[in-house]
Amino acid sequence: MTSSVSASAGGMLVVTQVYPPNSQHQGQQVCEGMQTFSRAHLLAVGTVQIIIGAMVFLFGIVTFATQPSFMVSYSGFFVWGAVFYITAGSLTVAAGKSFNRCLVKTTLGFNVVASMASGTAIILYTLDATIQFCYYCPYTNQMQGVSGVLAVFQLLEFIVSITVSAFACKATCNCCR
Description:
- There is one protein chain.
- By secondary structure, the chain is mainly alpha-helical.
- The protein has one domain.
- 66% of the residues lie in helices and 9% in strands.
- The strands form 2 sheets. Strands 1-2 form a two-stranded antiparallel ribbon.
- α1 runs antiparallel to α5 (140-173), α2 (42-66) runs antiparallel to α3 (77-97) and α3 (77-97) runs antiparallel to α4 (101-130).
- The model has no long low-confidence stretch (mean pLDDT 80).
C-alpha cells in the first residue's frame, strides 16, 4: 500500500492511498477463495445456465403443445425447472462480476437447488424418452427424441450447477474473517 500527502496553498491537506489489486477491492478485504471464485469464468458458465433454462422452457412448450407427455408436461417441470436454471444462471453471472460474499452464498444456494432439480429432471426425461405411454398417439417417436435431447441438457445443467456450487463453496468456506 502506498500513500502520499500533499498540501495546497489554501491550507487543505489531501491524503491519497493506493491499495494493491489483489489484497483490497473497494475498501473491503478480499480473500483468496473469493479471488479464485471470480477467476473461474463464471460469466460464461452462468450464460450456459441461462441458455439451458431457455431451451428447457421452449422445448417444453413444443412438447406440451404437440403431444403432452405423462412425466414432463403434466409435472410442469419445463416451467419451474427453467425458472430455477435462469435464476441460478443470472446469479452466477452477477457473482462473477462482483466480490460480494452474500451474492456468492446466494449463488451457492440456488445452484444447489438447480442441481437437485436437474437430477430429478434427468430421471423424468429419461423415463419419458424410454417408456412409450401412448401407443396410438401421433409423433410419439419424435417426442421421445425431444425428451432424450432434453435429458442431455439436464445432464449438462447438473454438471454445471455442481461445478458452480463447488467453486462457491470453496469461495465462502475458505474465506478470511
